[in-house]
């Protein structure tokens, strides 16, 4: 099993963070099997692209809410890490009350 659960949508409240706000959160290690995805579909072109992080943040965005970790952005990076036999991912984690 790669993820804790494959979800479809964001169950947590809107946090309103911009890309600049996310960049202020230092990355930390997160286990892939503790993440719940917020997207059930992915694009293989994005997954296999050599420059998939060229235009975005190098670190996935995770929202911690009600004791769960939701992978908001970075599904393709998380899957690429799993394909490389890694169980841990460096991600920016926003803790919501």
Q: What is the third-level CATH name, the topology?
A: Conserved hypothetical protein from pyrococcus furiosus pfu- 392566-001, ParB domain
- Total helices: the number is 3
Shape: globular
CATH superfamily: Conserved hypothetical protein from pyrococcus furiosus pfu- 392566-001, ParB domain
What is the CATH top level name?
A: Alpha Beta
Average pLDDT rating: 90
Radius of gyration in whole Å, from Cα?
A: 13 Å
Strand content: 25-35%
Main beta sheet: 6 strands, mixed
Main structural class: alpha/beta
The largest sheet has its strands arranged as 1-3-5-4-6-2
Pfam family, one: VapB
Protein name: Transcription regulator of the Arc/MetJ class
InterPro entries: VapB-like_prob
